[in-house]
Records
---
Amino acid sequence: MWKSLKESKTGMLGVLIMLLVFLMAIMAQWISPYDPAKQDLMNKLMDPVFAGGSAQHLLGTDQLGRDILSRLIYGSRITILVAFSGTIFAGLIGVTLGALAGYYGKWVDALIMRIVDIQLSFPFVLLALFVAAVLGRSLRNIILIAAISGWVPYARLIRGEILSVREMEYIEAIRSVGGKNGRIILYHIIPNVISPVIVQATLGMARIILMEASLSYLGLGVPLEIPTWGRMLSEGRDYMLTNPWLAILPGVAITLTVLGVNLMGDWMRDYLDPKLNV
């Protein structure tokens, strides 16, 4: 894996970006120069250093005098937590339902696939907004939205993979010696079809990051006292003509993180899919 990563410049770039964001989230309280919620109205709307501002605030301050760099650092925590937690829960739900549909077929497959069709008939943004509006603003609800709205691709993917392997000779051999269905699925089928799921998970993380930023932008994300990149972007839109950095900086953070996830996902697809090496 390390050799493959070193040979892929884009993959290495993606991994480095995600490693940087991950470390920034873990070490936020030690590397953040200020309290992200501390207001200083005497120093509000300061420009960043590269735009002629003071070195006291490297990336400037917002309309309440809060340090933008500190808010970007702490905002990475929400991004990483929601992305990883949402991806894990969505994957668990999708893989479980997809495995049941693909292995058992018949009415089980029909029932699960109709649920998939019903969910796909709802626009993703509309579904997320509905759940957020009903359940309210909280980190737990954002993760729940990510899981509810993100399990379908995993279910469809794992179902298709299992349909192609469930009748293979090694599965028949396990059945012939008394292997139970649950054990066959868990220990003999899923390990052989999990590679595309891992790739889907990396690409799904990018969608969850954008979802969290979108909900925060609309005021339906986590509570207002918690800094997030999406809310920073929303707050900065009113100052685009006078202080564009308020919106540009969180937008760049979101873009780079999504880019890093996608580049890492592309490399993992190339590494884990042997068909691409033929």
Note: The two ends are 18 Å apart (CA to CA).
---
Amino acid sequence: MIKRPLVIVTLLTGLNLLNYLDRWLIAAVSPNIQRELRLSDAQTGGVGSAFLWGYLLFSPLVALLGERVKRTWLIGAGVALWCLATAGSGLAGTFATLIAMRVAVGIGEASYASLSPTVIDDITPADRKARNLAIFYAAIPVGSALGFVVGGLLDKAIGWRAAFYVAGGPGVLLALSCFFISDAPPKARDQRAGLKEALTGILRSPRYRWLTVGFTAQTFALGGFAFWAPHFLERTFHMDLAHANTVLGGTLVVTGLAGALLGGVISDRSRDPDRVRAQTRVCAVTAALAVPFSAWAVLAGSPFAFFVALGLAELFIFFSTAPYNAALMGAVPLGLRAMAVAFSIFIGHLLGDIISEPLVGVLSDRLGSLRPAMFVLAAAVVVNALAWVLALRAPRLSEEAA
């Protein structure tokens, strides 16, 4: 059995990296998918967000199961499913088939995303939670960057279908290793609340509610920017798609990795005894700093200006990754953390990128241009910052986790 915390964090981080590689590989190759399958912008946006439907439908169920059965078994089974569905995406010959494969990817991802943070939280001392979560969530920008770079290069070399075959294979081995992770359930997991009771428990926390609102707005913006950036660069500045994806990936990995790791370190160094307030403060300040750069990215008059603006926006947005997740779990009673994470994911995607990716496509079709359609994404960053300021001012519940 795998029992060492460092090995467990490393393994789960590697899976998170592959998860986001798959998630954004489709953004990198979507212009060529659109051309081959003859899709409108609205349909193309729908392909980008399709996996979220499976993700949303299964996240609450997985959270409830995670309080009752071995979490690492659920994680392993879910990862195996999304790897197979990723490879299956390359076989799709129609819009409907591709949508079905992406929904299956989301079903697999639901088990992983809802439960992995709670496993890491269990094996980490209180004064290092944000740092260990920062390591785990640093895989988001790295994996996303690899999705753009690997997807762009494979698309150009061997086609978009083969890119999915390559991306789906490595995760199967990591999925099998999850079944050997030790997962002794803590006492808090014996408090088995039903869905209604669990939701009532987490939504009693004002901090949790405002943190989730801010995350939803951030997800709306990040998902929209990431999916449509290759299209924006190709159409507006006539950049070669593979080159655009490579630069996007490089920008994302540098700024995202730096932001995620620094956010965790800064949060843990705070001397405020109220850990949730300290973590939320980092989120609120850095979200506010991201606002002007998000607007500048949409207004950019050159590829260089776009990459600088987007990179700075990403840097400040990713500062909040670890502090947000630590604050979210700390803002609810200890036995409800898995449901807190799952419900936040559910709302964040249901009202976030599952809407923004096709919405930008619909607006682009209606307005005849992608640039004005993307202003809705910059507006969402403003909402993100305001919500986290309100979370910072919200009262603390006596039942909050330590």
Note: The first helix runs from residue 5 to 37.
---
Amino acid sequence: MKPKGRWAAALLHALALLTSAALMPSAASALAVGDTVSGRFELGEKQIPLPAGKWTVAGVGNQNFSMPEVGAFGTIRSAVLLMTRESSVVAVLEVNANALPSTDGWGRTKACAPAENQLMLIDRYRTGWETSCQFLRATRFDAGTAGPEAWEKARAFAVKEKLTMPQVWLTAGFRVSDRHDLIDARYHINPTLLLGPAASQLTQLSDWTGEAAKADPLRQGAVRAVAAWGSGFDAWIERGLRNRMAEDPGPLPELVAATPSYADLKLRELDRLHQEGRIDDATYKAQTERAKAEVPEFKPNTSLLSNSVRKNISFRSIGTIVDYGIAYLVTANSAVSWGIALTLNATDSVWFVLNDQYWDDYYARLNTHDAERLVDFTYIGDYVAAEARL
């Protein structure tokens, strides 16, 4: 081949490679409205898991958020993705993630505190800088509902594409963070996936309270299905935060019979490591047996009492008996002694709670650790102004 021919062939080959690279979808490429993604995508250099199926990027943007205490975090990146069937939206994902690593953690969200509207609340862990929480509740919004920048673009996209959506959703929310990074994701699921056409009659938030669900076996089954799905899906959020997703998640709860748990995923990883020869037979067998018994300890957070009140009840239960004993030694009268003990119990309880809350708040302001910080963004259908409180 002549030199000119070789140069021409090399040039054509290079052009072909560049063209294929440009056409090949990548999870790391910048998101644009109208893109279709599946399995996972990247936001703020973190992997965001997607339940099986095609998701359309409907809106991307930034959150109006200012918090000097966490350092130079860049900005909060936001995205809204839609899963559709024909012209109906069956699921909406809204997700927030920091663009740059923080220096002092990302704290808690109001949604991870006990509230009457929670259908499920689980704190997997909450340490000085690390948090992992998931919740389930009903959320009300449609294409006419205002929201953050990404949602404003998404609802314009929905109107343009003539997409329909319900007014009430079952929302599975996840907040996972460490000292540096954060994923705050909410998967809004169309109840039609779980109830069929009957869901169109349930258009109020009051139709999806805990009491309402208990009174209707179908709604109770729907809540349990989404709760079971969420309790396994949080493992994907954990992996995504650390960019360790090696495979894609399963489907939305409409088709889930048995949601993979942490133990299931760990067994799968052990199998892979063993097949690759990275662990020997003895280690594989030993760790497999341990993994089967490694059931995550879920502690549903259902108490509406503050820590101060709970500590006061515990303390005063014994203190009242002690007060009665001391009073009886002085008065030798049971009725008078009980009166003194109960009076002290009532007054001291008030001062105990107020004093305890003051010191908790005082040290929270001195201590900028993640666990003491409340960080919320603006969410779809949830009129929570962006705030940060120490």
Note: The longest helix spans residues 334-366.
---
Amino acid sequence: MKDNTNIREIGVCPRCGKTYTEPPALSRTDNETLICPDCGTREALESLGVSAEEQDKILETIHRSLCSPR
């Protein structure tokens, strides 16, 4: 029996064009399209009226906290 726990699928985000390996987000624009986690976060923040500049800062903080050793 094969162990497939280390297999990751690579997706390409139709919103930004970047590749990603994390679980996708469901776009709020049509509730059908799978997008990268960053674009999913951006769509959520946009719905709250957060500016693009602040979105960049928030995503930078998320990436920094996910990559830091614990």
Note: The CA atoms of residues 55 and 61 lie 10 Å apart.
